[in-house]
User: Fold this.
Amino acid sequence: NAGVTQTPKFRVLKTGQSMTLLCAQDMNHEYMYWYRQDPGMGLRLIHYSVGEGTTAKGEVPDGYNVSRLKKQNFLLGLESAAPSQTSVYFCASRIQGLNTEAFFGQGTRLTVV
Amino acid sequence: AQKVTQAQTEISVVEKEDVTLDCVYETRDTTYYLFWYKQPPSGELVFLIRRNSFDEQNEISGRYSWNFQKSTSSFNFTITASQVVDSAVYFCALSVLTDSWGKLQFGAGTQVVVTP
Assistant:
């Protein structure tokens, strides 16, 4: 059972470069989320999606874009990476309904130099 | 807006000691859901427990126990007889009924270090 899979696991970018993080889930979950984790700040929501073709901004959306063309995939894009985007990124998914836990990917450690 | 506070940044204990992690939440919603997640050194987040606001029954699961008190807006987590494998960052999180999309508000996390 793969669950939630993030690609890549590690990446180093130069300032100004672009990249896309891929999140894939095989649990047929409606809801998907992208969080970033920074020391002392817990996880903060970047963007989320409640279904194929729909996305919305979270708490810290600036500098990121997302797309959900297929139900199982949720992509996070950085168009022009900045050192402030150095972080660990987590994708999560959950079944529709509030009383359910979210399942997380293993994380992507991104360093922008 | 929702807020989750985990005031303890790091707790260090010797193996077999008990450790209690504090979680205080703020919300105006009357229906909400509280969660605890564990993040071991390997980095993934592991779901531990979920509790609804209308269910104040405390729970024990093996060496883990949770104390939910609406009167003090707290959802504390205790590890009894800690083991080295309990070393991890523990996150408390909150979602509310009026947020239909189930977004989680996380606390900053508490690092637990268990030494032999």
